[in-house]
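Maltose O-acetyltransferase: structure tokens wanted.
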Amino acid sequence: MGYKGVLYKLRGLYKFGDMSSKLRGKVFVNKLGRIRVGKNLSIVGHPWAVQITSTKGANLIFGDHVYINAGVGIAASKEIVIGDNVKIGPRTSIFDSNYHRMDSADKGELSKKVTIGNNVWIGADCTILPGVTIGDNSVIAAKSTVNKDIPGNVLAGGTPAKPIRELTIENGWVRE
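Answer:
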């Protein structure tokens, strides 16, 4: 399927994935790997463009009811899984690869899976680094850098991000 099958314009709204997805403004999609989109993906590419990339052999999976704000960059070189009811704030970056080695002694993997659980809210200007899992119902405070796993049901923040406090989440409650 060519580029036109992935992204097309209909009455001023861009569509991506199934018909219930909405893209507004500038959204750039680089699909060399696999991108799977759940129901109700909403992306706002205004005033800053959104960049979504899945390189050859990579998987990028969006759950249902995902909201991506302006200026977000998501780049999958291995696998990024974003759960249901996730909200991603403006100018946030999510990468599963370091793309290059720091020095000649660095022999580790360049790419590590990123998993963002269900009902997660990621604030503005955050950076989510390779190998991270963010647990269900958690909130990542604005301007945080997540370089280690964050458990579920917590507010986490800082650089590097650390749990600040536990959140009370009733069973079945979804963040609006």
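The radius of gyration is 16 Å. The chain has one domain: 3-100+108-166.

Cheers.
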